[in-house]
Amino acid sequence: MSDNADVVLVLPVLQPAGAERIVAELARRLPAEGFRTAVVCLEDERAPVGAELAAAGIPVQGLRLSRRRTLACATALAAVLPERRPLIVHAHLFHANLVARMAYARMSPQMREGIHVLSTVHVAERRFRPWQFALDRFTAAHARAEICVSRAVAAFQQEHTGLPREFFRVIENGIDLSRFGPAAPRAEGEAPLVVSVGRLDPQKDFATLLRAWKTVQDAHPGAELAIAGDGPEAAGLRALCTTLSLQRVKFLGLVLDVPALLRRAALYAQPSAWEGFGLTVAEAMACALPVVVTDADSLPELVTHRKTGLVVPKGQPEELARAMLELLKNQALAVSLGAAARAEAVQRFAVERMVADYARVYREILCAS
Hints:
It contains 15 helices and 13 strands. With 369 residues, it is an alpha/beta fold.
């Protein structure tokens, strides 16, 4: 294997979200593993994560095209790839995965020499998207492997694409544990804060959380709920709050300092209808917070029921409310689950482990070529 191989990380957009945060960590940390890194965004590189990476000295380039213009993006991506070989083109999320494969397919055999394409899938896509799975299957010959962020995602992709099991690898996401630690105990009489973080769209199912909050509010009127994130359902969720006569609910919008928000919390709730990994769940666990999650896809992989948190059926506000109230009323249980969650996070979710796992896959591919 050549030293200092190039890795180009490709994303559709560079807005703050789970996959983008993972790519940012890889871009910053892979050089310590002997890889030169650069980031290509199909759309605008001046978005917040792109600006953050550029400030850190990571080369960032935007194609400034719609991510849905696959062939145009593929042509543009091929034109900006480094000439040095070997080169790993590591794409993340559906549109970038497809573009990277099509860029490789459209190259001449001479240009392809020394280029290795990898894809990463970050979510079990449960919306009606049959064409995504068909395109994944059709273009799989142009990728060396498809990395999935959880066992649930790998099983889901294998089932829906029909691709061989050996095509998929699992690398769990990682977090910077130095940024996430236990908060100081709440002052006596301080109102407990329940926090949930995520894009305001159907995947995260905040409507179920709000319906559950109606029960929590009636039984524990001092508790507060803070939802961090933005998205297409923002107006509808605020309207639902009005319909349900909810009080002490705050929509915080995009929160850049998630660790500070988690350190204020007494409890973290993740009401997802479907998931890929659950990055903020791992972060909450690292903060020694008791967590309540649904049984969507990967979340039971992160949280063991009644050992490191509580797992409830998705889409059932009554069960979600019951679990939140149990932790709000039983401080001993909350502390015990939070401590166990912290221990699990330290053991499993260190960003250094994640980066080493990706570097290991790169080396295996380069050594085999």
